User: Fold UDP-N-acetylmuramoylalanine--D-glutamate ligase from Prosthecodimorpha staleyi.
Amino acid sequence: MIPVESFRGLKVAVVGLGGSGMVTAEALRAGGAVPILADDNAEAMARAAAAGFATDPLRDVDWRSLAALVLAPGVPLTHPRPHWSVDLALSHGVPILGDVELFCRERRARCPDAPLIAITGTNGKSTTTALIAHLLAHAGRDVQMGGNIGRAVLSLDPPQPGRHYVIECSSFQIDTTPSIDPTVGILLNLSEDHLDRHGTMANYAAIKERLVAGAATAIVGVDDPLSAAIADRVEQRGTRVVRISNRNPVAHGYYYEAGHIIEAATASATVAGDLGGIAALRGAHNGQNAAAAVAAVRALGLDHRTIMAGLRSFPGLAHRMELIGRRGRVLFVNDSKATNADSTAQALASFERIYWIAGGKPKTGGITSLESFFPRVAKAYLIGVATEEFADTLDGKVAYEKSGTVAAALEAAARDAAEDGAPESVVLLSPACASYDQFKNFEVRGDHFRSLVRQIDGLVLREGA
Assistant:
């Protein structure tokens, strides 16, 4: 744990007592602060009180006595409307921060030279984060990984010389991190997502821009107009910008081409990474993820041979294009982390004959943007709240059935795929939806799918799945 000493002796409100909220409270208490905890869930409040924390009603406390409000990522800051604690903080001039902001302050105070690699983007950030952490660890570096993936950032080990922090940052986390200042900041891409929390794409993009605007080196994907414009603006302000692409060559930076990561410099282009045969990095979308990772670790001093060895040993990310196993000519792939249409597009583009399990809590736009991939889908199996909306989109274009649950969808998809005469077919869970209508999060959804697949007779598991 990283004790938060910057609020020693001061009262700090902590709102939102999920995993990261409780870690934040513990870190504040360990650093000598006086945290006062609040959550709209009575059970969460009871657990906090049982852990010895003050749970005074925040609506009634003297807000002038509070040094800060620390808001958990799941608590609305602006949209659809600010949480009541946000209104109170703003009306009393109390700073509103997040756990990543507390981490950044502690890093600057304790060991500002400890490298911080911060990653954001609509899609691919978890894979990129895991890949960077793997490449650094494989090279023998001291690595701590967390944030929006795995461990809460304040649960990591304290900063010290040579310790590398590889931190995935969601837009919610960046929104409450005004002083984010990574050694290497990465923005992979931008597409419509989380507008229920940010209101407009302009707001969403502006929040993402903060991460690279504060970086010593900014690595920016330039395959969408919003990100390309951010790269230009950040560079004009004097930041070193490395552009990456999985679609087109770049003059200076890294791009993906025919299974290779190409490093481009003035009048030269050299192979910086070979993805051929690396199952965990299959698909053009992983070309961008790998390009960003290679650019990051090159900026941190890794050489070509070390990078190649690390790429070849990367096991992949759980729940993202995760090959669970094979039965005859049928592959079973867990892509539960695909919680929006753009992410699912990357999975659909990676296979030719797909039995697609889709649905959950739908996001703006549904799956209309995926129509160009429908010819790859032999049949769709619809689950959750999105069932009727997705059925309307697929009607007359793709065969489908309304399965309702993951278990029912998998049973039907496995049966139909087994009867397919194609050289290879894929049963693919790639929901294009959030999980919250049926599961706590996408990890639980993916674990459920993986467990069901493992029970299929005749399945040959992929090693480690």
